[in-house]
Specification:
Elements lengths: L9 H13 L2 H7 L6 H5 L3 H18 L3 H13 L11 H14 L3 E3 L2 E4 L2 E2 L9 H5 L1
Antiparallel strand pairs: 1-2, 2-3
Length: 135
């Protein structure tokens, strides 16, 4: 069923793809041209498992937005650049997008405290008593 290099045959690939699509190993085996009994052993084969894991990873990569995509989208929303949206309307989503971007970029440290550049503005506290300062 598997060649010596551990690679899948076309039918095994078809089985794995169908199994991922249908969720039923016996049905996938039959549609791929195997006997239904082939299904249980095939889905335990390391090469088939590795192929299915790689296919799932590829699907997840296509379906899940990257961090850069999320930041780009939030920036477009914040700027009112989304097609069909009037910038003067719907300021609430724009404000929320700006807030999310600010949090992600570390603009806000806590309520009322804002970072300037990469460093926080220091607060100077004069807590030395007058008599100790004179010497």
């Amino acid at each position: 069923m598997q060649n010596r290099a551990g690679r899948l045959t076309d039918r095994q690939r078809r089985f794995a793809d169908l199994y991922l699509e249908l969720g039923n190993a016996s049905e996938a085996a039959e549609q791929a041209g195997f006997k239904r009994s082939y299904a249980q052993g095939a889905k335990r084969q390391p090469a088939v498992q590795a192929y299915m894991q790689e296919r799932l990873r590829q699907v997840q990569q296509r379906n899940i937005a990257s961090a850069d995509e999320v930041l780009e989208f939030l920036t477009e929303v914040m700027r009112g650049e989304i097609a069909g949206e009037r910038p003067e309307k719907n300021s609430s989503p724009r404000m929320r997008a700006a807030e999310l971007l600010g949090k992600r970029l570390g603009v806000f440290t806590d309520v009322g405290s804002v970072l300037r550049g990469a460093q926080a503005v220091p607060e100077i506290v004069d807590d030395i008593p007058e008599e100790d300062a004179a010497g």
